């Protein structure tokens, strides 16, 4: 098999291909997407921190100057939303936006959310166990982080069912060479979500509460587009990884029953287990960067205007960094995985994600000690954001 992100077999188990890339061609050009694949941990880690690369390039060049086609007009509403959030901008705009939002994600603020996260997780797991199981992703993994971020933002409970579909549709644009249908779906979702947030912000601007949207409406230096882009990013980033770490993680444990038994017998392993599950079957397999100045990686010249594809899933299985990398070890202590990224775009919500995962896995281990797989799951077709369609289990 070769690197083929549209092949279901590759998506299901890309790791042998990664191993070959790391050994034989750690920097290789992938013609179908016009990207340079970077597969070793040291290189991925270094390039994430290298300011000669960026998530965006429009602050230094036009599309034409970078040899890129102008985006079609119908995509404009999508990019207006996305490029107003901190993920797809560079300093100084990124610095300003991250500084404003990071006030809600200080260690003290995040830790104060733990009791509420624990209560939500416990309630979801109790209901799940009472009915004897079901789809762990739809009934536990998804509702937990969506509820947490919706409460932080101040989205009314009656509207929260709208958030996950909008997020999933928007994230479809991040896949490699998305289909025309996926592009139009993403644009529609971005327009609908932006309209909803503008209406909600208008209400909170006049009658502020204690939620994050209310706080953002009171910041004069934040434009309406930036407020919307920030909230969309917080929702998408605030739950996509957590959902897929939960689904992928439990599927990993079911495939490694000895490690699941270790975890059941020693709950003190839970913190290291969460980190190991993020490493072993990484939910975000690839993160892209634009080359803003010529760079060289392993003697390969990568010119300004090129795009590099940093293979997180490969980096997290690099034997130069992780002894016996293909073995799941819930007690692995030295675990410098890069599932949350690195550099200025390191995931702002990582501490909150860790709390959600600890509380979710802990509740399931406590209240469903005999949970087992009901049927083998299948993977969603997406590669960059890689997760299961569902995970059917029994708790009886």
Secondary structure topology:
Elements: H1 8-12, H2 15-24, E1 27-30, E2 35-38, H3 41-49, E3 53-54, H4 76-82, H5 93-102, H6 107-112, H7 114-130, E4 133-135, H8 136-141, H9 143-153, H10 163-171, H11 180-206, H12 212-217, H13 224-255, H14 257-265, H15 270-280, E5 286-291, E6 295-297, E7 300-302, E8 307-311, H16 312-315, H17 350-367, E9 372-373, E10 392-394
Parallel strand pairs: 2-8
Antiparallel strand pairs: 1-2, 3-5, 4-10, 5-8, 6-7, 9-10
Structure description:
It is a single chain. By secondary structure, the chain is α+β, with helices and mostly antiparallel strands. The protein has a single domain, classed as Cytochrome p450 (Orthogonal Bundle), CATH 1.10.630.10. The protein contains 17 helices and ten strands. Strands 1-2-8-5-3 form a five-stranded mixed beta sheet, with helices on both faces. It has a three-stranded antiparallel beta sheet with strand order 4-10-9. Helix 9 (143-153) packs antiparallel against helix 13 and helix 11 packs across helix 13. The longest helix is centred in the middle third of the chain and has 32 residues, at 224-255. It is globular. The model has no long low-confidence stretch (mean pLDDT 94).
Short recap of the structure:
The protein is an alpha+beta fold. The protein has 17 helices and ten strands.
Class of secondary structure makeup: alpha+beta
In which order are the strands of the major sheet placed? 1-2-8-5-3
Helix content: 40-55%
Strand content: 5-15%
Overall pLDDT, averaged?
Answer: 94
End-to-end Cα distance: 40 Å
Largest sheet: 5 strands, mixed
Shape verdict: globular
CATH top level is Mainly Alpha
Multimeric state: single chain
The CATH superfamily name is Cytochrome P450
Query: In total, how many domains does the architecture comprise?
Result: 1
Q: What's the number of extended β-strand segments?
A: 10
């Amino acid at each position: 098999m070769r690197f083929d992100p549209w092949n279901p077999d590759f998506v299901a188990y890309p790791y042998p291909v990664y191993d070959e890339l790391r050994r034989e061609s750690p920097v290789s050009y992938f013609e179908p997407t016009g990207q340079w694949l970077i597969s070793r941990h040291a290189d991925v880690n270094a390039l994430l921190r290298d300011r000669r690369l960026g998530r965006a390039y429009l602050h230094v060049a036009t599309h034409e100057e970078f040899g890129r086609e102008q985006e079609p007009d119908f995509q404009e509403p999508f990019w207006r939303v996305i490029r107003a959030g901190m993920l797809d901008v560079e300093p100084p705009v990124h610095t300003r936006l991250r500084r404003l939002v990071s006030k809600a994600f200080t260690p003290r603020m995040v830790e104060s959310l733990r009791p509420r996260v624990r209560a939500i997780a416990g309630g979801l797991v109790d209901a799940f166990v009472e009915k004897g199981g079901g789809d762990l992703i739809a009934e536990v993994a998804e509702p937990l982080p969506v509820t947490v971020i919706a409460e932080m933002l101040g989205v009314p409970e009656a509207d929260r069912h709208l958030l996950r579909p909008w997020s999933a549709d928007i994230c479809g644009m991040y896949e490699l060479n998305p289909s025309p249908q996926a592009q139009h779906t993403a644009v529609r979702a971005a327009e609908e979500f932006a309209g909803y947030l503008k209406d909600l912000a208008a209400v909170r601007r006049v009658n502020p509460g204690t939620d994050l949207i209310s706080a953002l409406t009171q910041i004069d230096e934040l434009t309406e587009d930036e407020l919307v882009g920030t909230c969309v990013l917080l929702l998408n980033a605030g739950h996509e990884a957590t959902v897929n770490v939960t689904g992928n993680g439990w599927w990993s444990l079911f495939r490694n029953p000895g490690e699941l038994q270790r975890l059941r017998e020693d709950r003190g392993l839970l913190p290291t287990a969460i980190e190991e599950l993020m490493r072993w079957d990484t939910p975000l397999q690839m993160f892209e960067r634009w080359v803003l100045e010529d760079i060289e990686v392993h003697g390969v010249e990568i010119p300004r205007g090129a795009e590099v594809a940093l293979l997180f899933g490969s980096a997290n299985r690099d034997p130069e960094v992780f002894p016996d990398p293909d073995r799941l070890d819930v007690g692995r202590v030295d675990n410098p995985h890069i599932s949350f990224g690195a550099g200025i775009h390191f995931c702002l919500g990582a501490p909150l994600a860790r709390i959600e995962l600890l509380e979710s896995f802990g509740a399931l281990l406590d209240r469903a000690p005999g949970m087992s797989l009901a049927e083998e799951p299948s993977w969603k077709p997406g590669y960059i954001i890689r997760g299961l369609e569902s995970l059917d289990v029994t708790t009886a």
